[in-house]
Amino acid sequence: MIFVSDRTLGTGTFSVKAGIFKEICDKAKEKNSTSSPEGNYDKNYVLIIDEINRGNISKIFGELITLLENDKRLGRENEAIAVLPYSQKPFGVPFNLFIIGTMNTADRSIGHIDYAIRRRFVFIPIVASRYVIADHSYYENEEIKQAALDLFDAIKNFIEENINQDLEVEDLMIGHSYFLCRTKVELQQRLEYEIIPLVSEYEKDGIIMFGKKELKDKFTEWKNLVS
Residue 108: phi, psi to the nearest 5? Predict the structure, then answer.
């Protein structure tokens, strides 16, 4: 549910509106002329929650987290229905609704996702890939593509050689989207204003074990690759 303040001075009244999650659930089980009596389960629906780990997932879903389990979806053998606390209306999650949550594994807030949440999602890692950069067709010319590949290789080798041994390279490598630039100027700006500041933060947090002076020399080396 979404709580929208409709407050006026001195009254403090609130109205309760149906949120996007409930709206999509209702849409997924909507009946039409060709659907079964149980609902419109011949169509699949997808809800994508970007940076899902940024919120307190346990509080966001609350008791409804149980309804996400496969066997407790509407239309399944152990179908479960909850009564929403504010509207007092019955609510269930149809089995044809797929929930996708994205997150950055380099973000320390991922550690706040408890096991109750983890059990209800499948985790699929998407690592930084050199092949994506090589196959990208948006570059202005081959020289820019090669510069992007050289920069990617240099940064990956640097992280692999200097990363804190308690951490994984795949979780901290700069994503390939940073290197998908049409022009050399765009690639230079990505390096100067996005990649270098991020690597600098890695050094400050002890993720990268490298001296500050030596790091500046390394940044100059990277800049030369895209000059």
Answer: -65, -15
Which value, to the nearest 10 degrees, does the dihedral of the CA atoms of residues 191, 195, 197, 203 take?
-130
What whole-number distance in Å separates Cα of residue 26 and Cα of residue 91? Answer: 9
pLDDT digits (tens, 9 = 90+) for 60-80: 777 778 888 888 888 888 888
- What token pair was written down for 36? 């079964």
> Nearest to residue 93, comparing CAs of 170, 176, 25?
25
Instruction: In whole angstroms, give the CA distance from residue 83 to residue 106.
Output: 37
Residue reference for tokens 């499948």:
122
Domain residue spans of the chain:
2-118, 130-225
Total length of the chain: 227
DSSP state at residue 208: B
Q: Region of 12 please: left (phi>0), alpha (psi -120 to 50) or beta.
A: left
**How many beta carbons lie within 10 A of that of residue 93, not counting itself?**
26
What per-residue confidence (pLDDT) applies to 113? 65
Cα-based distances in Å from 192 to 10, 177, 198, 219: 52, 15, 10, 9
H or E element in which residue 58 lies? helix 57-61
Identity of the amino acid at 166: D
Across 146-153, average pLDDT: 96
Containing 82, the helix (H) or strand (E) segment is: strand 82-83
